[in-house]
Design goal:
By secondary structure, this protein is an alpha/beta fold. Helix content is about 45%, strand content about 20%. The two termini are about 35 Å apart.
């Protein structure tokens, strides 16, 4: 454990040193590398068990298929996972919602879980693609009584509302993404790149 922490600390210091140098000699190249990291997904979590009785489905969007599962009948509740997650992470909500008389729909966003990759390959995606995929799923199952969304899924929900592809009576946001600037501030603090690079990233 101590060896792993020391190795990680060494990597962070080396990266910070390289980005500090790039701040003055190649801020554009540094910004392109940072943007690539910004959109890169973490390792996918292991699949979780889902309740019995679900109906698998696939819908097509601009860059392939989105895969998910639906249960029950009644007003539709969409479950929208977050960055690097999977739809089945919200599986514990399925049975209570079905028992309350809802149709419950969850799915994997582009480049996540069982869904096809997005426009940027199998290890990257964007909040915009999340929102487009949600819109495609809504096109199959209809307007939402509610959306329960986590993290990046909250941004996807807001984008789908803005696009007009989603209507919802209720929104439940869990640990929502609060905005680009604050999130990028944290990313900048972690990678320790400077203002010249940041201007090119923004």
């Amino acid at each position: 454990m101590a060896h792993s922490a020391k190795r990680k600390s060494t990597i962070v210091r080396t990266l910070a040193g390289n980005l500090a140098l790039a701040e003055w000699v190649a801020p554009g190249a540094a910004a392109r590398w940072i943007a690539d990291q910004w959109f890169r997904l973490p390792p996918s979590p292991r699949p979780s068990d889902l309740p019995d009785g679900g109906e698998p489905f696939a819908v097509t969007w601009e860059h392939g298929e989105v895969h998910g599962t639906a249960w029950g009948d009644g007003p539709v509740v969409y479950l929208m996972h977050g960055w690097g997650g999977r739809g089945d992470q919200l599986g514990a909500l399925v049975e209570p919602l079905v028992d309350a008389g809802h149709r419950v729909v969850l799915f994997d966003a582009p480049s996540h879980g069982a869904s096809d990759q997005g426009a940027f390959g199998p290890t990257s995606t964007t909040g915009v693609e999340f929102g487009m995929a949600l819109g495609a799923v809504v096109g199959r199952f209809g307007p939402a009584e509610a959306v329960v969304a986590h993290s990046m899924g909250t941004l996807a929900t807001l984008l789908a509302l803005n696009y007009g592809s989603l209507g919802a009576n209720r929104l439940v946001f869990v640990a929502p993404m609060t905005g680009y600037a604050a999130t990028m501030d944290g990313f900048q603090a972690m990678l320790r790149f400077g203002p010249r690079t940041r201007r090119r990233v923004d």
